[in-house]
Amino acid sequence: MTEVAPRRHRGPNPWIEAAYLLLAEHGHSAVTIERLSATTAKTRGSFYHHFGSMESFVARLVADWQERNTERIVRLAHATREPGQRRKVLNREAGQLDARVETAFRIWAGLDPQVRAACDAVDNRRVSVLAQDLIDFAGALGCDLRDGEATALAQIEYAAFIGGMLLASKGKNSLLLDLGSKYDDLLTAYLRYRQP
Asked: Residue 87: which H helix or E strand, with range?
């Protein structure tokens, strides 16, 4: 296994990066203090110095995952005002996520309430952002989309994304990039069909 960070890198970041590497390569069961120490070439004492316990480490890891794989993407997308461009940014950035890591977190969530709560929060946040963006997108096309309908469409889109993540092999998300544009084509046709 590749060493994540040389010894000169200090602080908690090498541990977090090591966890992502272990999740991607071996799944959640590999995220142990022993494996993290071996991957970072740091001591158990260093781990406890930064995190105190495995539970605290997991809390830090899931917070980082939420920031990196959701909130960062939301900020990038909302840096543009035009709804169609926002959706392109969302699709592009989501398509670049490592499917192995996203899938590993979901498998882990089935076994760990702390990770389950993080996954639930991520899912709710992503669907709510998609729903609001769908309302804005529909408005730009001259179509009124109600909250309930926007939420249902967002849930369909997000379910397709999660399914695409599960189908993506070895972290390659080319399927996801195509999925987003195809969904937008279907969405545009649906919204235009609904117009009076």
From this structure: helix 83-95
pLDDT 10s digits, 105-148: 999 999 999 999 999 999 999 999 999 999 999 999 888 999 99
Long-range contact set of residues 21-30: C-beta below 8 Å, sequence gap at least 24 = 23/100, 23/101, 23/104, 23/105, 23/108, 24/98, 24/100, 24/101, 24/104, 24/171, 25/1, 25/100, 27/104, 27/107, 27/108, 28/104, 28/105, 28/107, 28/108, 28/111, 28/112, 28/115
The predicted structure's pLDDT at residue 1: 43
How far apart CA 89 and CA 157 sit, in angstroms, is 15
Domain 62-194 has CATH 3.30.70: no
Q: Are 54 and 33 in contact (CB under 8 A)?
A: yes
User: What span, in angstroms and rounded, lies between the C-alpha atoms of 162 and 156?
Assistant: 10
CB 42 within 8 A of CB 14: yes
What is the rounded distance in angstroms from the CA atom of residue 151 to the CA atom of residue 126? Answer: 11
- CATH number, domain 1-52: 1.10.10
- Summarised one tens digit per residue, pLDDT across range 64-73 is 999 999 999 9
Q: Domain residue spans in the chain?
A: 1-52, 62-194
> Each residue of 9-31: pLDDT tens digit?
555 799 999 999 999 999 999 99
